[in-house]
Amino acid sequence: MISSIVSKVKQKRIAQLVAKGKRLDGRALTEYREIKIEPSIIERAEGSAQVHIGKTQVLVGVKIETGEPFSDIPDQGVLTVNAELVPLASPTFEPGPPNEDAIELARIVDRGIRESKAIALEELCIQPGKKVFIVFVDVYVLNHDGNLIDASALAALTALVNTKMFNYEMKNDEIVKKPGYKPLPVRNYPVAVTFAKINDKLVVDPWLEEEHVMDARLTITTDKDGKICSIQKGGSGYFTTQQILEAAKIAKEKAAELRKLVVKT
Amino acid sequence: MSKPEKLLDKKGLRLDGRKLDELRPIKMEVGILANADGSAYLEQGRNKVLAAVYGPKEVHPKHLALPDRAILRCRYHMAPFSVEERKSPAPSRREIELSKVIRDALEPAVFLEYYPRTSIDIFIEILQADGGTRCAGITTAALALADAGIPMRDLVVACAAGKADGKLILDLMDLEDKYGEADVPLAMMPGINAVTLLQMDGSLTLEEFEKAIEMAMEGCRKIYEVQKEALKAKYVTVKEETEE
Amino acid sequence: MPTFFEEKELVTPGDLLAEGEYMAGENTYRENGKIFAARIGLVEYENRRVRVVALRGFYVPRVGDTVIGIVVEVGFNGWEIDINAPYVATLRASDVLERGYRPQKDNLLSILDIGDLIVAKIASYDRGSNPRLTINEPGLGKVSRGQLIKVTPTKIPRIIGRKGSMISMIKRETNCRITLGQNGLILISGRKPEDEQLAIMAILKIEEESHTSGLTDRITKMLKKEKEARKNVQT
Q1: Contacting subunits of B (3+ beta carbon pairs below 8 A)
Q2: What CATH number corresponds to the domain at position C165?
Q3: CA-based nearest residue to A113, from A190, A26, A208
Q4: Whole-model pTM?
Q5: What is the mean pLDDT of chain A?
Q6: ipTM value
Q7: Direct distance between the N- and C-terminal alpha carbons of chain C, in angstroms, rounded to an integer
Q8: Residue A10 lies in a domain
Q9: Do the Cβ atoms of B35 and A138 come within 8 Å?
Q10: How many domains does chain A contain in total?
Q11: Torsion-angle region of residue C145: left (phi > 0), alpha (psi -120 to 50) or beta?
């Protein structure tokens, strides 16, 4: 019931500690909170995963439907990512259509998957120009304690890696299901790493109160080869070039660590 | 999913092997969301339901506040991936109706008059659906209210009875709801024997209806025991651990 | 006249506690000559009075209570303070400025700004209006340092202990200043953050085990053990 305002005393303390290279919860500046990943938690969906990063909790469900392709790419499947900041996750979330935060979150997750070509969309064509598979990725934030981006991206990746599609054959222009499943063709594993700038220092995986104190955030998504496939700067502050390059280096390392939790290579 | 040939097999068992008056396996957990004032999670068969409560707190917008009691607001919502065909996250007419009847089912249990000019907000999210989600939602939401420490007359618990292949059945799953002959969801406060939700669709004789209500209430009483245990669970384990 | 539970047994809303000539104490209600529990907690029967010590609950303001709050809004005549209750509390400028409030000359923001923490007392409160605070007493006012934690308000008496025994012990063992708000907010201020962490650990443990017996001994033991462990790490 206490408001989401972080007291000045605490804000000062967080900033002071960061300047000394420490954080209020004892973490190092580039350390993540405890991460828990549960794949395939919604068995009726084609794919799903729940991720906890600290107390932040995100559930992603993947549904595969059929539909029409985009007219300019008639032989490729369609990926669509949506995020819901459901009101039960935070006293600051209101019911209603997605606001700018929800839309930004969805688009960041989308960009990571799309630009890294994580899903082989060309293998999802049924009848060019007429019928393709549509992959719906629905991000459901269940508890907001900071860094929704990394948790959502990690849950989306895990859900996709565990997504199964039904086998089918074409009979008289109709799709007929056959017994058995095959995995969704996933070829890359994008992982997002988000930084908050506090007192001119970069911290990885800001929790909610650090987010209240930060002046800007930077999310860098890298793929399985360590290539950068998407970046998003948020917040009203700024970064120096040096900070951006430093963040990119750290993001590549941290992403590799997180990737190991999802994909056993 | 296409209509199954029969809903009951030769031995009179249902498609998931249950007897006519058997409940689906059910489990509940309380206090699982960190931000909400109260929360609960329930699994009943393949239903997976999450409920959270925020409040009592100041009402926004202020003109909605009542001078002599709290207002209860309820939102029943299904996740897009909770059903067979992906559902748009925008609230459907069905979700809006269910939000209302669920609120009406829970309101009699809450001492609203203790907290004038405030609101108590209940959020129910169906993460996976397999029939009877409004009942499961009510049961979960009642736990979340108790977890939030909101004074209540009793817990509210819900269960549906219905008819399939000519026989009365308890706790309908999706196929039975879709292709059966009747569905009667019911919610009650078992301690004071008060029915707070009652709906019906299908076709039943008066005798069948009376029997269906009895069955539903029996089901409710069984689920009520699980609810109480779930509420006490955390304290019971802590007590056992400290007394070792 | 029957009662239906043992003393200190765990009860849930709707449980029938007693029937007949009993008085409905806190967290219970009376209907048709029966007394029922309204919250989850431990039932207590004292003479003819039945009450439930709630394990889950929130703070309802009471005149005279010491509370800790955070400024959420600065208005024309005063401030709005979040005291972790269903109602936002108000602190009037006239309470803080003894010689009277002069809107042109007095800048409220410079006295208390959004995000400031205060220790205050509930000066007045009734059903029709929000609680009014005062900081016009020794020991009350703006807080400039320390860590704030939140517990279920119904556990505050347990944290205080009989005649203050529990809280005095924690203060002694951790060398911290601890201010308890009846609204469940607790301010801990120590010389070192490690000392504050120790106090927080003890208080959170009490919150979790408040319904068990032998708590004071267990907390004392735990604190001594932790301090030993820290000493060994240092040497």
Answers
A1: A, C
A2: 3.30.1370.10
A3: A190
A4: 0.93
A5: 94
A6: 0.92
A7: 64
A8: no
A9: no
A10: 1
A11: beta
